[in-house]
């Protein structure tokens, strides 16, 4: 597969406002599925590397407003996190909110990776400006994984392939992995991508999985977890 660099990928498929579809696929099935990927698809490559380590640190209010908003499917819900691209030591503070027709809107600000475990004054001001509130927040969850990113020129969309997902609770220190599973996400405009159709042909349908929501539910059995029950039962609680 031909490479694409980060500059061109960002120019052609930044997709800060998008439709996300997520699939949990047995690891042993992924290679066979990807043989049918769209002709002309390109893979993100940086310094000869195509597989990158990610770390996301999530923040929430003491009463878990962000988590409960997702658990109860509230229209005005959000996620607040820092995301670190470990290999390149780049970091952002990000707020994800809901846009029209179920789309995801991501707003972000460059951040010092040394501060990724906390919200600095600048980070708090940024989050407050985006969310229109000044609620106190603290670190609740860390997720780590490795990601490969594909660019699909026919729909100017992206497909990400995440492996080795591990959640660690910042509240208890407990950890949980997603064993022998790969999370595939398609990030498109309003039209499903060829990757979505490829996965459908192989019998895989989008599922509700959130690296924050599902991770918190897996690590804290007392929390409401209805949106992620199917993924928890089929893929996490093994």
From TrEMBL:
Domain of life: Bacteria
Gene3D superfamilies according to UniProt: VTC, catalytic tunnel domain (3.20.100.30)
InterPro entries referenced in this protein's UniProt entry, alphabetically: VTC_domain, VTC_sf
Start and end residues of each VTC domain: 18-220
Pfam families cross-referenced by the UniProt entry: VTC
Protein's name according to its UniProt entry: VTC domain-containing protein
Natural source organism: Cellulomonas humilata
């Amino acid at each position: 597969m031909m490479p694409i660099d980060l500059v061109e990928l960002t120019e052609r498929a930044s997709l800060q406002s998008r439709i996300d579809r997520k699939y949990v696929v047995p690891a042993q099935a992924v290679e066979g599925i990807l043989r049918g990927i769209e002709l002309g698809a390109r893979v993100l490559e940086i310094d000869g590397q195509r597989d990158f380590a990610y770390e996301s640190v999530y923040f929430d209010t003491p009463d878990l407003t962000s988590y409960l908003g997702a658990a109860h499917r509230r229209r005005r819900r959000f996620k607040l996190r820092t995301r670190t691209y470990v290999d390149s030591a780049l970091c952002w503070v990000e707020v994800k909110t809901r846009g029209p027709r179920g789309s995801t809107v991501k707003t972000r600000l460059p951040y010092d990776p040394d501060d990724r475990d906390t919200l600095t004054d600048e980070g708090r001001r940024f989050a407050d400006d985006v969310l229109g509130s000044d609620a106190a927040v603290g670190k609740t969850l860390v997720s780590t994984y490795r990601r490969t990113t594909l660019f699909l020129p026919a729909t100017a969309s992206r497909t990400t392939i995440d492996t080795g997902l591990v959640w660690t609770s910042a509240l208890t220190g407990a950890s949980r992995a997603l064993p022998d599973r790969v999370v595939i996400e398609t990030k498109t405009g309003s039209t499903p991508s060829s990757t979505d159709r490829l996965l459908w042909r192989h019998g895989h349908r989008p599922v509700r999985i959130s690296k924050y929501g599902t991770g918190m539910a897996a690590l804290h059995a007392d929390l409401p977890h209805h949106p992620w029950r199917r993924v928890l039962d089929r893929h996490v609680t093994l």
